[in-house]
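Task: sequence design from structure.
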């Protein structure tokens, strides 16, 4: 094993000020060996516990999250810039997730009788081992917990490799699991370099891999997991369509579009990024949308009243700005924003591009920041055509006053989820995941908990 990093440490910076918060050394080869051994020991202890015992730990974790919500939320805001109210909401969402799997997880994992002719058979759902979770920075608690909670309820261990700018947040989460009574080594947060991550994937002590990240990261991790013959679940990029038809409640659709696009400073995978409006209401929608966007307050997430915080990193801001500039050069209309704000920190003005068409970067690529693109559709069929004209397929949004038509159009959208007269969200009761280059596999609900178990058939011959 060679886990030696090309750089020595991960750097955490406050994106609202640009100031360094902390430096976290990457795990050495020897430290990674110890981490993997500790994970194996933790898995052995945890997998031996009953479903009821595991559920009790999840309930305890929900209580710990609610008890420590203020310091947990403060760390997320400091490391990646999330508005404090959104950080607190993220903590509560994680607590709800723990409670839901504590109440429902055992039912998904109990032995399942399966009659087979004159014989008797059943299916057992058994843990696989330690799952490596490679997680992003945009929802530093929810993205991790969305993967980890069902994986842990299934009796597996979880080794978290967090994004380099949120190592402090990951450490607090590991402490919370310890306080909840999870056996040592069952949930480990480790600052592992890219080289160390590759070494871990290849190691027999890692049973499977789950990744939330970019398409490029998905290709790399899937290839490495495939080489090691290990299960992998990928939740990758998204450029979700947000379709508004002429018979929609326009005011409600505008409010939902603004909330969807600018929550978390626009740094959301599952969110309406390509707003596609039917011609008859296009001009009115654009006017209302721009009015709402111009009213958004931008500033430090720790200051009350701010709706949009800084982008998580300066390099991401510069990449977003390049996409906006390229789209304008290709013919898009810049109606609001379109520049970095003249102040310390990585603040980008909430931006609206109209007249966006296929071939422009704002349409063809994922814009991961406070930028909304609006496209004009001739009619409902053209709107669906534009929606599907994307390499991504994470989720879609559809606004119409005709319920029957909504059901028909939803089946034509090439996405993992469709939200009618609402906007994309995640909930433990329903699965989440994508098609096309948005990845494969599912998280949440019973689909998610069964991604990382061995569905073992046991067959009794009655003779």
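Answer:
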């Amino acid at each position: 094993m060679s886990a030696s990093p090309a750089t020595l440490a991960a750097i955490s910076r406050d994106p609202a000020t640009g100031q360094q918060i902390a430096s976290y050394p990457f795990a050495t080869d020897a430290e990674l060996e110890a981490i993997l051994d500790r994970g194996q020991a933790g898995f052995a202890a945890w997998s031996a516990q009953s479903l009821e015992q595991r559920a009790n730990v999840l309930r305890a974790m929900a209580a710990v999250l609610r008890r420590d919500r203020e310091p947990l939320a403060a760390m997320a805001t400091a490391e990646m810039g999330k508005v404090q109210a959104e950080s607190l909401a993220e903590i509560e969402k994680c607590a709800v997730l723990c409670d839901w799997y504590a109440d429902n997880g055992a039912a998904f994992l109990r032995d399942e009788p399966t009659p087979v002719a004159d014989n008797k058979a059943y299916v057992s759902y058994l843990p696989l081992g330690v799952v490596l979770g490679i997680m992003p920075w945009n929802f530093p608690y929810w993205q991790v917990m969305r993967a980890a909670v069902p994986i842990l309820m299934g009796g597996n261990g979880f080794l978290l490799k967090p994004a380099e700018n949120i190592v402090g947040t990951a450490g607090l989460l590991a402490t919370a699991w310890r306080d909840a009574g999870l056996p040592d080594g069952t949930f480990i947060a480790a600052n592992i370099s890219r080289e160390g991550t590759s070494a871990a994937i290849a190691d027999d002590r890692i049973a499977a891999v789950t990744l939330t990240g970019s398409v490029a990261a998905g290709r790399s991790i899937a290839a490495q997991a495939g080489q090691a013959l290990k299960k992998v679940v990928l939740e990758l990029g998204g450029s979700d369509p947000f379709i508004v038809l002429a018979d929609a409640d326009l005011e409600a659709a505008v409010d939902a579009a603004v909330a969807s696009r600018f929550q978390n400073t626009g740094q959301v995978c599952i969110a309406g990024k390509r707003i596609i409006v039917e011609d008859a209401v296009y001009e009115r929608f654009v006017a209302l949308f721009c009015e709402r966007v111009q009213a958004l307050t931008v500033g430090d997430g720790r200051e009350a009243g701010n709706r949009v915080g800084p982008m998580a990193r300066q390099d991401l801001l510069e990449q977003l700005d390049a996409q906006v500039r390229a789209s304008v050069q290709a013919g898009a209309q810049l109606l609001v924003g379109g520049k970095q704000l003249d102040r310390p920190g990585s603040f980008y003005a909430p931006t609206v591009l109209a007249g966006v068409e296929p071939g422009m970067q704002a349409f063809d690529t994922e814009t991961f920041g406070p930028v909304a693109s609006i496209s004009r559709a001739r009619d409902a069929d053209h709107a669906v055509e534009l929606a599907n004209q994307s390499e991504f397929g994470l989720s879609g949004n559809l606004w119409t006053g005709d319920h029957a038509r909504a059901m028909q159009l939803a089946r034509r959208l090439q996405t993992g989820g469709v939200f009618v007269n609402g906007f994309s969200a995640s909930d433990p009761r329903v699965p989440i995941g994508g098609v096309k280059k948005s990845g494969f596999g599912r998280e949440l609900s019973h689909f998610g908990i069964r991604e990382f178990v061995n569905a073992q058939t046991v067959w009794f011959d009655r003779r």
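The domain at 9-236+438-460 is CATH 3.40.605.10 (Aldehyde Dehydrogenase; Chain A, domain 1).
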